[in-house]
Amino acid sequence: MLLGLVLLYHGDGVQGHSPRRPHASLLFLFLVCLLSLFLAPLALARTSIDDSKDLLVWEVKGGKRTRLAPDACGDSFAAAVANNDDEFPFYRGVESCWQSSRDLVVRLMLPEGYPDSVSCDYLEYSLWRGVQGIASQINSILSTQALLYAVGLGKGAIPTAAAVNWVLKDGIGYLSKILLSKFGRQFDVNPKGWRLFADLLENTAYGLEILTPVFPHLFVLIGAAAGAGRSASSLIQAATRSCFYAGFATQRNFAEVIAKGEAQGMVSKFLGIMIGITLANYVGSSTSLALSSYFMITGIHMYCNLKSYQSIQLKTLNPYRASLLFSEYLLSGQIPSIKEVNDEEPLCPGLPFFNAHKGQSETLSLEAKDAASGVYRRLQLGSKLSQVVNNKEDTFALFELFRNEGYLLAEKQGRFHVVLKEGSSPEDMLKSLFHANYMYWLEKNVGIEPRSVAEECSPGGRLYISLDYVRREFSHFKHDGKQSGWFTDGLIARSLPNRIRPGYAVSA
Questions:
Q1: Radius of gyration of the CA atoms of the chain, in A
Q2: What range does the domain containing 215 cover?
Q3: What Cα–Cα distance (Å) separates residue 238 from each residue in 242, 244, 246, 258?
């Protein structure tokens, strides 16, 4: 274009020459402009391609990631294809089939957006649960076959009598669900331990049912005991399952996590049914073979259950987990991670075999573990006021010190008694546990000896000092704990039902 303008006006600026006719210059200018219209996009495309050589773009769909590369024109992206794909069409087809099958399984078995839509412990838990589901289904088939032999269906017995015995057995077993529902709050406090107990109860019920052919005259009695165990087990499993799924659903996809868990369970049952039928045909009516198979399958079942529960990382605070956090916070000012605390928490405090720790903690110190264990053993949540004070002076001093709190706290006979006020919240219970942990810290590190309740409530007393500290530091602990991923809005505990409502009578 610039060259055309120069040629157009060149003749006017040269002396001694006649002006050049402008037609040729105008034609040249037009051709240059037309050529630039075609060449400019190509040059721009080449620039875009050159600039995008180092640009990596990935298309993310759930857990699947596909690399995209710029196309020939450089104005869009397409799925990147390896250069040697055409050389091996068979392998490319197998790989494509495998990828399609894998994507189908992921869509059916895992929540949408996996692994970002669930917590990090979800996959390990699901794998162990899948294996234990297969083992449980095998035991179920073996026990059902034994029940059928015991009731006499394999020996020409009257079907009506067999049906009556069967219904009577189940009817008695259903009562266990009603009786066990009163422990519902305990399932929230220690869901792992209760779930392990439910699995042990279920396996015991299977064992009793396998023994029924040996004692056919006790069919109703043994069947009722086994039915009660299985009914109680199913209640505990259903109650605790919601605690686990709530922790997995990090994006509030609670219903989807439940749906995928049911799908995984159906796959385990399907595999278990096939293996169980094959094993049942081999066992037949032999009680010895059935018991041998039962013990082997039960060992696999319980081991997988133990590993699955150890992999769960609960973020809520029960008395033991909260004591571990409080003890380490008081000693070092740090908040332990969720994994460390869950690895340290015992599944069953009374059974050391089930309480093997998974590794050395990075943050939790030995002193913090001992302190948490000590506070947990000495804590009594929901004590009666008569267990703490027995005279007017101590009562007034305690009421005055804790006037603005939702609880009262005092140590008596080596136990930390927490008296809850009427309307106390889970946050008040969490605060009272923090207070008890600081009382324990003062006892071990400062050496303040216990005195009367009235003296400890006065300035300089242990209750007075500790409550002042708790009022200043509890909010900081809640903030730091929340930053670490803990749910610090309250304590999950089954306290005693005792409550008080302080008040002062007005004389006439």
A1: 37
A2: 121-311
A3: 7, 11, 13, 11
Nearest-angstrom CA–CA distance, 422 and 232? 33
Q: Is the same domain home to 303 and 343? A: no
> Where would I find the H helices in 52-158?
89-109, 122-151
Residue 70 lies in a domain: no
336 & 228 share domain = no
In terms of domains, do 157 and 263 share one?
yes
Cβ atoms within 10 Å, residue 41: 11
Q: In angstroms, rounded to a whole number, what is the distance separating the alpha carbons of residues 221 and 230?
A: 14
Q: What is the pLDDT of residues 380-427, one digit of tens each?
A: 999 998 888 888 899 999 999 999 999 999 998 889 999 999 889 999
| Number of domains observed in the structure of the chain | 2
Residues 344 and 462 in one domain: yes
Both structure tokens of 405? 């709190």
Whether 289 and 329 share a structural domain: no
Q: Does residue 495 form part of some domain? A: no
User: Could you tell me whether strands 415-420 and 407-412 are parallel, antiparallel, or unpaired per DSSP bridges?
Assistant: antiparallel
pLDDT per residue as tens digits for the range 331-380: 999 999 999 999 988 887 656 555 655 555 667 888 999 999 999 999 99
Counting DSSP H helices and E strands in the chain, the numbers are 17, 6
What is the maximum span of the chain, computed from C-alpha positions, in angstroms? 137
Distance CA 14, CA 439 (A): 106
Domain-located, residue 59: no
385 vs 387: CA distance, rounded Å: 5
Residues 6+ apart with CB under 8 A from 360: none
Considering the domain architecture, whether residues 333 and 471 belong to the same structural domain is answered as yes
Structure pTM? 0.72
What is the token pair recorded at 35? 């050529």
What is the per-residue DSSP string for 218-264?
GHHHHHHHHHHHHHHHHHHHHHHHHHHHHHHBTTS-HHHHHHHHHHH
Residue 284, domain CATH? 1.20.1250.20
Contact 453, 493 (CB under 8 A): no
pLDDT at 242: 84
The stretch 52-69 carries a mean pLDDT of: 61
Say yes or no: 129 and 239 in one domain: yes
Same domain, residue pair 307 and 324: no
3-state secondary structure at position 68:
strand
Residue 75 falls within a domain, yes or no?
no
